[in-house]
Amino acid sequence: MSEKNEGAVATTQPTAVQKSEPLGFALANINEAYRMANALSRSGLIPSALRGKPDDILVVLISGRELGMPPMQSLRHLYVIEGRISMSAVMMLGRVLKSGQCEYFTVTESTTKVARAKTKRRGSPDEVVLAFTIEDAIAMNLAGRDNWKKQPATMLRWRVVTALGRLVYPDIVEGIYSEDEAEDIRASARTMAANALEVPPSSEAPGAIRMKDVMEGEPTEREVVNEETGEITEEPVQQPAPARPAKATRSQQQPQASSAALW
After folding, report:
1. Whose CA is closest to 151, among 162, 140, 142?
2. d(Cα 245, Cα 64) in Å, to the nearest integer?
3. What is the pLDDT of the chain when averaged over all its residues?
4. Reduced 3-state DSSP string for the chain
5. What is the pLDDT at residue 83?
6. pTM (2 decimals)?
7. Is the pLDDT of residue 51 over 70?
8. 158: Cβ–Cβ under 8 A, 6 or more apart, which residues?
């Protein structure tokens, strides 16, 4: 080693570490989000309910961004039903498991009659157990739906998972309902609309004055002013006598004999 390098201290320059971006597009502002919504609305690869609806897609993208979800994940797992954002049950469970607040979340029983699940939140002394039965589904008018008829065990299982997740992890689920639960809201809205009482118009309410009562017929009284005293009185108006029907002529009373021969 040369004298020039003797005593030199080796130093290492720090290497800049590039932060890894999450997968998916990051939307910086509303204009970018709306441009993306317009582009996606023309695609045949997005959910059919969102095709051709850029405004609805924009709502889904903004809602997903607030939940920390990238755009395409939002389109796959978020739904708008009756003006409410809902989430797939799979996504709800995934958010709970990834939150770091869940020690375990297990389905302990799953049949066509009942589903049971248990979970324990980190820091909580006790676990929470919940069940959802086919009787519960019948009472909520769920069992008659097509997907409940075809796969009752699956529907019961996801029902108890979402209900338990919302009960124990409300800050993670954030009050969002699953797609199937949101469908209950839509069905209830349809039922309420079908069973709504028909309110009679105000003109038909008891004691109301109907327009036809006011407009039809001639007035029966008129005001008369006494020119000397200025007193106003009312006197009946003589109604014209109904016209008598014209007397039928002899030719109208008796039918004329037909000149045509009858065979």
Report:
1. 142
2. 81
3. 75
4. CCCCCCCCCCCCCCCCCCCCCCCCCCCCCHHHHHHHHHHHHCCCCCCHHHCCCHHHHHHHHHHHHHCCCCHHHHHHHEEEECCEEEECHHHHHHHHHHCCCEEEEEEEEECCCEEEEEEEECCCCCCEEEEEEHHHHHHCCCCCCHHHHHCHHHHHHHHHHHHHHHHHCHHHHCCCEEHHHHHHHHHHHHHHHHHCCCCCCHHHCCCCCCHHHHHCCCCCEEEEECCCCCCEEEEECCCCCCCCCCCCCHHHHCCCCCCCCCC
5. 73
6. 0.56
7. yes
8. 89, 178, 180
Determine what percent of the chain is predicted with pLDDT higher than 90.
Answer: 33
User: Residue range 199-210: average pLDDT?
Assistant: 49
Closest to 68 measured CA to CA, from 10, 103, 27: 27
Please say whether the beta carbons of 187 and 180 come within 8 A: no
